[in-house]
């Protein structure tokens, strides 16, 4: 069994089709001063042709998948239109490098920068640059596009990677599932798979060399596992699981308009995590009662100028207006990585996850922070906006950003611009110090939100982006459960609402546990909400409290997981 990242839910059983994209070979060589103008002309021709090709693919993606899912193609068009990207290639050509070598070097630098970032979202952006580079090189080399081989039968597509253009060319009606070596939850393959409801597992590491065309393969996109050449008993087990999943899925589709309420009448809220305004429609369709985490990094990445206050305002207000009075919690800018994709130069970070990120980034670059705060405040005039700040570890940092928030409110008032003067401020609990001293923050905040992804990373000293030790990144570790309980208890004692916006909130296995601990709001990827709601509506609050009490008495993550699995299965809840 291979373990990867659960990219799109569901179970696929079928024969493998190994997809191998074309390989491009080019020569980097020096050119004479007389050849520079000719190389610059070739570059401009390649940029124009690549833009025309991508514009056509983008139009098709818009038609087939809708605006929300076509975003990756728009991102690649933006790379081709990026003056900084073009300038770097031109600079190399003028220094005496041929156009193929210049494109290859610049693209490689961007890919390396993003892949080394340690941030999943940024690593996925590396694929966009890789795709654009391949397209430009193919045009420069005079190679015609090689059509993707047609699938002759329903198959599980196995690949090292799956680019945006290739994903559009595959015969999607014959794809049973995807098993990909590279990628994360926001990669093109996952976006496509979720939109077409195709089970997918990505981030599997090197395994394609072990597969032959026609091998039987099982893809469990709900658990993130792949089984090569399973025995008959395993096939029968997964066929049963697939039938159960499809039956549950049909049942869950009927839950979108029903409240997240236990059988004894205890109600919680289900919220969605988003990165872009285009995701709002999907969140609402899945029954989201608000946005519990609106990440804002998307607007800042891959550009050479800071987004203006007006540009940010337009970005935020789109979400606020689409939610029509439902709450929208906006998280200010966060970034962690050894290199900066920002227009703002940053110092080298030997340990970026313990360096200038989160609130430290906000406070070190006050112009960026103030501009963002003003834009968020302006958006608050159009709906129910809340704001929270990432990686807070000290009360004094929270007090400082609140003072800056008040200053921004005064500036907007003097400028005659509307905003919500009572905008709520939340504590995003992502580090152990904040979780352990949650009561010290109570007088300063209106609500709490627990970010389990970083909380687990910092508590257990496990880099969640490291494939080698990723299995040690365990949200059900007793230390994590105790920290979560402490935050929830403090919130309840201080009469504050408490949400969870980390991946744990979107894990059905943890739903009864979190419900029993007293969590008020579950904020997760939109696709997870129906299954979370199904669990909530199938139990009583008393049962959930008993489950939480017993889970807290266990001493190992594996024991907690087995116990919760048994509780789910005993209630005939799909797991």
Task: Describe the fold and architecture.
By secondary structure, the chain is α/β, with parallel strands linked by helices. 47% of the residues lie in helices and 13% in strands. The chain contains 21 helices and 16 strands. It has an 8-stranded mixed β-sheet with strand order 1-8-7-3-4-5-6-2. An 8-stranded parallel β-barrel has the order 9-10-11-12-13-14-15-16, surrounded by 5 helices. Helix 13 links the parallel strand 12 and strand 13. The longest helix has 30 residues, at 36-65. The model is unreliable at 337-341 (pLDDT under 50).
Task: Give the SSE map.
Elements: E1 2-3, E2 5-8, E3 11-19, H1 36-65, H2 71-81, H3 83-94, H4 99-115, H5 120-140, E4 155-159, H6 164-169, E5 175-180, H7 188-196, E6 200-202, E7 216-220, E8 225-228, H8 232-252, E9 269-274, H9 280-285, E10 291-294, H10 309-323, E11 328-331, H11 359-364, H12 366-379, E12 385-389, H13 395-414, E13 424-429, H14 432-436, H15 438-441, E14 447-450, H16 452-460, H17 478-493, E15 497-500, H18 508-517, E16 521-524, H19 529-538, H20 541-552, H21 557-570
Parallel strand pairs: 3-4, 4-5, 5-6, 9-10, 9-16, 10-11, 11-12, 12-13, 13-14, 14-15, 15-16
Antiparallel strand pairs: 1-8, 2-6, 3-7, 7-8
Helix pairs in contact: 1-2, 1-5, 2-5, 3-4, 4-5, 10-12, 12-13, 18-19, 18-20, 18-21
